[in-house]
Each structure stands twice: as structure tokens, then as C-alpha cells.
Design a protein that fits this description.
Elements lengths: L3 E2 L4 E2 L2 E2 L2 E2 L14 E2 L6 E2 L1 H4 L4 E6 L6 H16 L4 E7 L3 H11 L5 E4 L5 H5 L3 E2 L4 E2 L2 E5 L5 E6 L9 H11 L2
């Protein structure tokens, strides 16, 4: 049974319906399958990057100003990080739209994947906005052992995360 929350996040002046349970620091990061930008290939980011520190950046759509800035910023940060920290941006945009956007934006360090088919990530992390079928903005860090070490659900869709805080938390998770 999917948890339904109607008193957490507003879009405009109305509360949105959020589907799924929020996750917390210390719990095992829920496994999920998303879709890559090539041939709709199934990707499990947690398995693909096992043993590394993983930043999961959930955004509504790359074609919006805030998501555009956020993904570009995380791409700049990813270029400065070592191979032991992997950043994924996840949206419900179609994979071909993500591929086009990444090419136009020069985003090549962040791995951009889609939750459009099953919305498994959105449901397992409590991010899916029922009325719009896109994700609430949030950032998660998964440590090397697969546990969540950082969780930040942004209170307003238009807010950007604290990038310095996220990068510092990721570096701390390296151990």
C-alpha cells in the first residue's frame, strides 16, 4: 500500500499529493531501477555505483530554471570530485529529452537518469507528486555501505539545495 501525504508540500497555494514514504538518515537506501538515456536501458544506480558515495539529486524537470541550474552546478562539482563520489540527477523527463538537454547544457559528469516508466525512485523515496507525475526536489547521499548518510527534502519546489553542504556531506561519507 502506497503512503499518501497531502499536508507536506504546496504547489502554488494548494497542497500537492505526495506518494510514498520519506526515507531517513541511517536506513538502507531503497534500491530502484531507472532508465538511461540510450535505448531505454534499465539502470540501478545503487548497484552500478556500489562501494562509492552516491549523491542522488531529485528534480521535477531539467527544462525548468531551478533544475537546470541545479544540474549544471552538480556537474561542475562532479568535475572536481574524485572517482569515489558519483552524482545522479533523476527526473521524470523522457530519456531522449534528458539526452538532448545534457548535450545542449554540456552536462557530462553527472549521470542523468529517468524515473518516467515506473516512478520507482519517486515512490520508494516519497517524492512522487501525484497531480503532476513528477518528483519533489530532494537530495540524498548514500554511503559506501548502502546506508543513507544525508537526506534533504526541499520545502519548496523552487528552492535549490545548499551545494556546499551536500558536497561536504558527501566528502564526509567517504570516511
Amino acid at each position: 500500500m502506497t503512503t499518501v501525504r497531502t499536508d507536506v508540500l504546496k504547489i502554488g497555494d494548494k497542497f500537492a499529493t505526495l506518494l510514498g514514504d520519506e526515507v531517513n538518515v541511517g536506513q538502507a537506501a531503497p534500491e530502484f531501477t531507472s532508465v538511461g538515456q540510450t535505448g531505454w536501458a534499465a539502470i540501478n544506480p545503487l548497484q552500478e555505483s556500489k562501494g562509492k558515495v552516491i549523491i542522488l539529486s531529485a528534480v521535477p524537470s531539467l527544462d525548468t530554471d531551478v533544475c537546470n541550474r541545479e544540474t549544471r552546478r552538480f556537474n561542475e562539482e562532479a568535475a572536481k570530485l574524485g572517482e569515489d563520489i558519483i552524482i545522479y540527477t533523476i527526473s521524470t523527463d523522457f530519456p531522449m529529452a534528458q539526452k538532448r538537454w545534457c548535450g545542449a547544457a554540456g552536462v557530462d559528469k553527472v549521470k542523468v537518469v529517468s524515473d518516467v516508466l515506473e516512478t520507482e525512485f519517486g515512490l520508494k523515496y516519497g517524492l512522487l507528486i501525484k497531480e503532476r507525475r513528477f518528483l519533489r526536489r530532494a537530495v540524498f547521499i548514500v554511503g559506501r555501505e548502502g546506508k543513507l548518510t544525508y537526506v534533504n527534502y526541499l520545502p519548496v519546489l523552487g528552492n535549490e539545495p545548499d551545494y556546499e553542504e551536500v558536497i561536504a556531506a558527501a566528502k564526509q561519507a567517504l570516511g
